[in-house]
Amino acid sequence: MSKKTSWVHGATGIKKYPWTTQRTVDLGTGKVSHSFLVIPESPCPLLGRDLLTKMGAQIHFEPEGPKITDSQNRPISILTVTLEDEYRLHQEQKPPDQEIDSWLQRFPEAWAETGGLGLAKHRPAIFVEVKPGTDPVRVRQYPMPLEAREGITPHIHRLLDQGVLRACHSSWNTPLLPVRKPNSTDYRPVQDLREVNKRVMDIHPTVPNPYTLLSALHPEKQWYTVLDLKDAFFSLPLAPKSQGLFAFQWTDPERGINGQLTWTRLPQGFKNSPTLFDEALDEDLGEYRRQHPEITLLQYVDDLLIAARSPETCVQGTEDLSKTLGELGYQASATKAQICKSEVTYLGYLLKGGQRWLTKARKETILHIPRPQSTRQVREFLGSAGFCRLWIPGFAELAKPLYQATKERQPFNWTEEAELAFQQIKTALLSAPALGLPDVSKPFHLYVDESKGVAKAVLTQYLGPWQRPVAYLSKKLDSVAAGWPPCLWIIAATALMVRDADKLIMGQELRVITPHAIEGVLQQPPDRWMSNARLTHYQGLLLNPLRITFLPPTSLNPASLLPNPDLDAPFHECTEILAQVHGVREDLQDCPLPDTELIWFTDGSSYVHQGQRYAGAAITSETEVIWVEPLPPGTSAQRAELIPLTQALTLGAEKKLTVYTDSRYAFATAHIHGAIYRERGLLTAEGKEIKNKQEILALLTALWKPKKLAIVHCPGHQKPTTPIARGNFLADQTSRSIAKAPSQLLALQLPDPGPRNLPCFPDYTEQDREWMDTLPLKQVKNGWRTDINDQTILPEKLGRQVLEHIHRTTHLGARRMIDLIRHAKFRIRHIAELASDVTTNCKACQLNNACPQTQTAAGIRCRGTRPGIYWEIDFTEIKPGKYGYQYLLVFVDTFSGWTEAFPTKRETAQVVAKKILEEILPRYGFPVQIGSDNGPAFVAKPYRKFTRKFGPDYENCTRQDLRRRLIHSSRETGS
């Protein structure tokens, strides 16, 4: 990126964007040097006037659509690829295999070049299931350049001749897109099936994970064959009833076609095609696997890999596989075949000598990614680099600043740390090592370390006397584990790394080396840091002597890439360290001090009385009150417990103090959570800011004030028969009694209401004078007029100012201000409207006063005479929603009170009508009446049309109590 920037004025405003440096660009008509303006928010690449000038572009508007050509009338097109696929542009074209001709002659049915289009002979036609209630989707065909249409026409003709396409009439239609192939002038047809995919039932994807697929390869099998099936999805037939879903519009005067075409085979772009084909091919090749146990066959959708120990075995296995594919009806591509090689490329990896490498094209793609200018570009870089994370030691630690830059709800900020991480990841790719293929017949070694909240590990296996790396693993610790002491961080790090390693080692023996003795800590765990569920998970995962063995540390830990200079003596004892960091203050006791000077009891009370929450706090001894204070209305119970405990520690400064509290929240905050907050920050387990932050900080600070301290938990609400129960009872009663007392109020500085005297002469408008002419006036003094009741008539403009001054000072309501004006012997035109307008537009009143509820006339709701004839219906919102269901449609039978509730994704009239037709009518018959609260879903045209057609009376209810009753009834049923 260069330092040059430009302001861009778009639909969303004006923003500054940077330029790239001068780069060599291949325009197809020649190479030029050009600088691009980088606009990440642009939905598609735009060609500016400067680049169009260099291309000599000419735009022709024709009936078939716009046509863009260069100065020599040659068509111009643009290829757009994702960062993940850009490496394909850098791949070098492999020279043709001279031996492929013999394979084509011996097995003509197995190759697409000699056998034509394949058709699986033993597979039934595939039926595609549409989601219930789905309407057909119709998307018009996009305008297509003439050059692109001519480019895909031969492919359409070929597919029509092969029977893959046929003419049809369908209510479904999606557009066809011509995509230009890289480094060629040829086009291929690609159908935009996104809208169809949204309306088709999902199936569980069973396609293998390429992250773990190569773990099934044995390192000693170093002869490979790679086959790529040609037009693989077209090998599976599509059921006739499902073919109409994938129709598209096509016009071809040459063949007399002007209508729709659809697919008779499994189409590309359909979301379930990879899973359906992968399962079908895997089942068909099952017999081949059983007949060749000495060969490893890997399948990733339509990419096949054979691995054998010797070239002879590999050749024999390839011959048998070619014969099997031909018999089954599948054809491979001869141009992409890699037959019996010691070095092949498979799934973007280079396989050679029992090791896997990153291909040069993959590295080049990531190294050419420019510095990100937005959060989205950072995510794209992390996605591309994350594919190579097995080759980058400590990737999670390196990428930590980049992940910080992707956080939402904050402006994009590219810091120096992010730039350093960006360059370090690129540098690490340049020196990416070769990784050994996992050998499941040998034990694995896992070296684990933790640094800066990131778990790091190196998975290795012995190759003779040396250890060869299999994978570099790294992952950030969760926010809960980040709040533990350092000796527990390594437990969480080990668990994370063992889980990731299990994906590669297939459950084989694993030997773990860590810098801490975590096995002993897990067998005698700390009692206050981990939850029982997490502890049980760690023990079940790591304490498995049949599979996992913990070894002593070594002098060189590959996970940290730093030698350990002092292994003769342990740095520390983990159990002692955990015992020391269990709380904020080391001498804090949870039992009474034997030499205590003061014994106090604290309690906070918070309760609701007549719709108002009252709160109070108290500190007492066994017999007398030490401190008591009412708390502001609305104070929560937890906050009310923290305040008196903090006050007791402040009053007991430099004393030996024993404090009793019946609050588990306050007790745990002082003894347990304080140390966690100190390590993790004031965050919850989900990483969100804790409640009562200020009170907790004050309590943690006050813990250090007493000379000696014990905070003891005692049961609450006990009979006062013991000294502890009597002290706690006194504190509880005192805090409850003081809660209703007036709390301290802060004095507010009221604004200046303005001048107190009327001006010398009035400024009546023409409207004021016309209005006064209709009134019986008494006298005129200095231009001021008074009526027969001695009320001075104010101009309407001055009257508004007087009302605003009164309301700004007192915030009285409209009626009260009118009374004040009347008692002050003033009269204002339109005073009611002015007073109402002033109070309504007051921001302070809107924030503090309850919103006025419009009073409506009470309706008459009839009760049914038998079940199922009279229903009341309403929507309520589900919080939090799951799986897209955010609303609950509730039906209540007014005769029996029976409730029917259905979760829905939308609050629309179509949903209401559908549920009545599918759920109510089949079970209860036609209702006589249906009542609602006049919501949008019940007054829309579809629902009104439904009620008119099927007969039930349509009624609206505006009473709020009916809505609350429906929601309350539905919640009581557990719906």
Automatic annotation (TrEMBL):
Start and end residues of each RNase H type-1 domain: 594-740
BP GO terms, sorted: DNA integration; DNA recombination; DNA synthesis involved in DNA repair; DNA-templated DNA replication; proteolysis
InterPro entries: DNA/RNA_pol_sf (IPR043502), Integrase_cat-core (IPR001584), Peptidase_A2_cat (IPR001995), Peptidase_aspartic_dom_sf (IPR021109), Retropepsins (IPR018061), Rev_trsase/Diguanyl_cyclase (IPR043128), RNaseH-like_sf (IPR012337), RNaseH_domain (IPR002156)
Pfam families, per the entry: RNase_H, RT_RNaseH_2, rve, RVP, RVT_1, zf-H2C2
Keyword annotations from UniProtKB, A to Z: DNA recombination, Hydrolase, Nucleotidyltransferase, RNA-directed DNA polymerase, Transferase
CDD domains reported for this sequence: RNase_HI_RT_Bel, RT_ZFREV_like
Domain Peptidase A2: 1-51
Domain Reverse transcriptase, first and last residues per copy: 160-351
Domain Integrase catalytic residues, every copy: 863-975
Gene3D superfamilies: 1.10.340.70, 3.10.20.370, 3.30.70.270, Acid Proteases (2.40.70.10), HIV Type 1 Reverse Transcriptase, subunit A, domain 1 (3.10.10.10), Ribonuclease H-like superfamily/Ribonuclease H (3.30.420.10)
Molecular functions (GO terms): aspartic-type endopeptidase activity; nucleic acid binding; RNA-directed DNA polymerase activity; RNA-DNA hybrid ribonuclease activity
Family per similarity comment: Belongs to the beta type-B retroviral polymerase family. HERV class-II K(HML-2) pol subfamily.
PANTHER family xref list: PEPTIDASE A2 DOMAIN-CONTAINING PROTEIN-RELATED, POL PROTEIN
Record protein name field: Uncharacterized protein
Taxonomy of the source species: Eukaryota, Metazoa, Chordata, Craniata, Vertebrata
